[in-house]
From TrEMBL:
Binds 2 calcium ions per subunit. It comes from the Eukaryota. Belongs to the paraoxonase family. The gene is LOC118409877. The lineage of its organism: Eukaryota, Metazoa, Chordata, Cephalochordata, Leptocardii. It comes from Branchiostoma floridae. This is Paraoxonase.
Length: 284
């Protein structure tokens, strides 16, 4: 008798748990509050067919777009996204009538296995060199690809590929120099089912890593889900979006490159990428 009752009870509990916890399991509580911001007239740009995770812009209006990242295993896989091919696209904001174009990657074989996520630009004021830092979820492990953008031929030439045991669940990157950067690890667990558990329990094991050109260390930790990261041109502050806490955290960059929390800006929504206002350096 007890067994007969148990079956429907478990079924009801499972359905209940599914509805209560699924949104939280998928992405924090992002479905709860939706604010409608309309920055101006919007127009669909042709040529981005498998979504985009990040977009960065040079001072003179070239926008680099990452596309083709596969959904995290904790999310319900959408067959359409699984067909995506990793690419870096370019859109010229000064010629908005043009479509996006795919940037060629050199050396050629390096575009294979590219699954680009977060992006960051480093523009050298003196030499005019543009470097694009790309979070790459390569099948053999996460890495940061550092490219030089060759304007004349619209080519991204790989300068170096940074792999490090501390770069394991990289979401976004912010370049601090020609070879140095901060990067977010959005979770600690690497296995899909452990990720599910981590997202559910939210033990705050996500961190920010600093790479100085030769070695890396954790510069800040205790994040619920460190997502987008950016820094104003002054270089003394770092902004980190914690999706789990629904806040942008502002850090002071210390002399040894560790990050000290200064304040937290609560936004009541699941923040992802953060940009910087070029005039004021404020997070936007
Ligand atoms: C990078 O960090 C390592 C380890 O802390 C240190 O030995 C090395 O000198 C640093 N390199 C630079 C360029 O600061």
């Amino acid at each position: 008798m007890a067994n007969k009752l148990l079956v429907p009870l478990v079924a009801v509990a499972a359905v209940f748990a599914h509805f209560v916890f699924r949104p939280r399991l998928q992405f924090g509580d992002q479905r709860r509050a939706v604010y409608n911001h309309v920055p101006g007239t919007c127009r669909a740009v042709e040529g981005v067919v498998h979504g985009s995770e990040d977009i960065v812009r040079t001072r003179d209006g070239l926008a680099f777009i990452s596309t083709g990242v596969r959904p995290a295993p904790v999310l319900t896989p959408d067959p359409w996204y699984l067909q995506g091919v990793g690419k870096i696209l370019l859109f010229d904001l000064k010629n908005p009538g043009d479509a996006v174009r795919e940037l060629k990657i050199e050396p050629e074989g390096k575009s294979e296995g590219l699954e680009p996520h977060g992006l960051s630009l480093y523009e050298n004021q003196e030499s005019g060199e543009i470097r694009l830092f790309v979070v790459n979820h390569h099948k053999d492990g996460d890495r940061i690809e550092i490219f030089r953008y060759i304007r004349q031929s619209a080519i991204l030439r790989l300068i170096r590929s940074v792999q490090h045991p501390l770069l394991y669940n990289v979401n976004d990157v912010v370049a601090m120099g020609t070879d140095s950067f901060y990067a977010t690890n959005d979770m600690y667990s690497v296995r899909p089912w452990l990720k599910r558990l981590e997202r559910f329990l939210s033990p705050c094991w996500s961190n920010v890593v600093y790479y100085n050109g030769s070695d890396a260390f954790a510069a800040a930790d205790g994040f619920a889900f460190a997502n987008g990261i950016n820094a104003p041109p002054s270089g003394n502050l770092v902004y980190v979006c914690d999706t789990g806490r629904q806040a942008v955290q502002v850090f002071q960059r210390l002399v040894d490159n560790r990050l000290q929390m200064e304040r937290e800006i609560h936004l009541a929504t699941s923040v992802d990428n953060v940009d910087v206002c070029p005039d004021t350096g404020a997070p936007v």
